[in-house]
Amino acid sequence: MTIKESSKNGVHIFELKGDMLGGPDAVDFKNRLKAALDSGEKKVVVDLGGVNHMNSTGIGILVSSLATVNQHQGKLKLSNLEKNIRSIFVITNLAKVFESYDTLDAALASF
């Protein structure tokens, strides 16, 4: 999985690409998220448009990230969930836990 970071209109954006399966990529993502929060970022969007496959570890990474952002009094939102990823969120009822948007622009506008 590759991670690209950017910022737009005061929102920190993580664009993920590849398979979200855990391992060293999970640690890298968690470290980058923590660094963004520690630097004062409070608004975060995780763009999953490039994620083709996610296992239970990948779901755990997002759940843990949401908890971390909430502990920092921030907001985490998701964008661009592919059909198969969206179905995982619906089946696990996480669609009710995460705010998700069809596009990155819609997620950014929601803040």
Question: What is the topological layout?
Answer:
Elements: E1 2-8, E2 11-20, H1 24-38, E3 43-54, H2 56-71, E4 75-79, H3 83-91, E5 99-101, H4 104-109
Parallel strand pairs: 2-3, 3-4, 4-5
Antiparallel strand pairs: 1-2
Helix pairs in contact: 1-2
**H/E element string?**
EEHEHEHEH
Task: Provide the helix percentage.
Answer: 40-55%
Total of DSSP H or I helical runs spanning 4+ residues? 4
Biggest sheet overview: 5 strands, mixed
Description of the structure:
With 111 residues, the chain is α/β, with parallel strands linked by helices. It has helices at 24-38, 56-71, 83-91, 104-109, and strands at residues 2-8, 11-20, 43-54, 75-79, 99-101. A five-stranded mixed sheet has the order 1-2-3-4-5.
Pick out its properties.
alpha/beta; 5-stranded mixed β-sheet; single chain; 4 helices; globular; 111 residues
